[in-house]
Write a structure and sequence with these properties.
The protein is α+β, with helices and mostly antiparallel strands. It has helices spanning 18-24, 48-63, 65-72; strands at residues 5-8, 11-14, 33-37, 40-44. The protein has one domain. The protein has three helices and four strands, in the order ββαββαα.
Length: 73
């Protein structure tokens, strides 16, 4: 899919066609992330940094399950 860079004030932007928004499962106001990959830049609605933080949090919750249960009481 070919996208054109346009001027928006002193900045630049892209207009994303409706079909691309649907494929990304995003709408106006949502955030997209540009991820540098070996194949180039990937545009995604998935936040890899947030996923990494959630993985750490889930590991801590598994390891400290008993402590968290006691704190919840």
């Amino acid at each position: 899919m070919k996208l054109k860079i346009i001027a928006i004030g002193n900045s630049a932007g892209l207009i994303l066609p409706k079909e691309l928004l649907a494929r990304l499962r995003v709408e106006k106001g949502d955030e997209l992330f540009a991820v540098d990959t070996p194949d180039g830049i990937t545009l995604t609605a998935f936040d890899p940094a947030r996923a990494a933080r959630m993985e750490v949090a889930e590991r801590i919750m598994r390891e400290d399950r008993d402590v968290l249960r006691k704190l919840a009481k």
